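Tokens for chain A. Residues wanted.
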């Protein structure tokens, strides 16, 4: 499990070659998700959300499936490590 937080200001960023960040996540992870990956939520996933792991040395961005409510959280939350797909400069 990883503690993560949402990254602000990414709403208008689009993934290269994919219709949505959720489609990007599905293709890169090889998984499907029906539920929000916040471990304290049981709602349906709706978006591929930009998150960053908590920690002073962590600089990478990741995509994880979240419901819209969890995508707007301003406090850290926990997701399974297997639900995180790293975003690179080429994505």
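Reply:
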């Amino acid at each position: 499990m990883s503690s993560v937080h949402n990254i602000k200001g990414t709403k208008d960023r689009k993934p290269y070659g994919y219709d949505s960040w959720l489609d990007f996540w599905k293709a890169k992870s090889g998984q499907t998700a029906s539920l929000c990956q916040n471990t304290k939520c049981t709602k349906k996933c709706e978006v591929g959300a930009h998150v960053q792991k908590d920690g002073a040395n962590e600089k990478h961005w990741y995509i994880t499936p979240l419901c819209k409510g969890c995508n707007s959280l301003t406090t850290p939350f926990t997701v399974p490590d297997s639900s995180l797909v790293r975003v690179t400069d080429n994505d």
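The chain has a mean pLDDT of 92. The CA atoms of residues 40 and 52 lie 18 Å apart.
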